[in-house]
Amino acid sequence: TSSGKQTTIEVLKEGRIFGDASFLEHSVRKANIVAITDVELICCRITDLIPILQENSELALLMMRHLTSTCNYLTNTINRLVNYDSIQKVADFLLTETNPNEPVIPYTHSDVAGCLNLNRVTVSRIMGKFKAEGAVEYGRGTIRVLKRQKLEELLK
């Protein structure tokens, strides 16, 4: 940004936890968060959570699965940002953020551009190409993946 501050955008799906690594590190995560859709925020101190995790192995396992999922998500994000061109970045993002059962995401082209550190005009051009090929459709604040295979082919 012009102020010299670095902006990182993290995309969270429904039911996801933000700041979970801070629990394990016993540290404070300094971050500003902006929600694209309505969210429910629940704050929890590590001193309150550890005894609950110690007494509930099912919850502890759930937290471990969540952390593993987060690690895999971040690994994929790094791979995307380092190894893909802009078209592949958008295709991979759409595939990652949707699935066959939930093919719609509540994002604008600007939201996608911010998540991928791309120019909005670039994302709009790419999305127009995807739309012309029948791979996606979009409207006000939503993007629907119609043909996952079309997008997957771009990543080969």
Describe this structure in words.
This protein is mainly α and 156 residues long. The chain contains seven helices and three strands. It has helices at residues 20-25, 46-55, 57-83, 86-97, 109-116, 120-132, 148-153, and strands at residues 104-105, 136-139, 142-145. It has a three-stranded antiparallel sheet with strand order 1-3-2. Helix 2 crosses helix 3 and helix 5 crosses helix 6 (120-132). The longest helix is centred in the middle third of the chain and has 27 residues, at 57-83. The protein is elongated and about 55 Å long. The two termini are 33 Å apart. Mean pLDDT is 83; it is low at 1-8.
Which spans of ≥5 residues are poorly predicted at pLDDT below 50? 1-8
Q: If helices are DSSP runs of H or I spanning 4 or more residues, what is the number of helices?
A: 7
Assembly type = single chain
Mean pLDDT value: 83
Number of strands: 3
Radius of gyration: 18 Å
Distance between the termini: 33 Å
For the largest sheet, list the strands in their spatial order.
1-3-2
What global shape is seen?
A: elongated
Instruction: Name the beta content range.
Output: 5-15%
- Share in helix: 40-55%
Q: Major sheet: size, sense and barrel closure?
A: 3 strands, antiparallel
- What is the total number of structural domains? 2
User: What structural category do the secondary elements indicate?
Assistant: mainly alpha
SSE pattern, N- to C-terminal: HHHHEHHEEH
Care to give the gist of this entry?
The protein has seven helices and three strands. It is mainly alpha-helical and 156 residues long. A hairpin with a 2-residue loop joins β2 (136-139) and β3 (142-145).
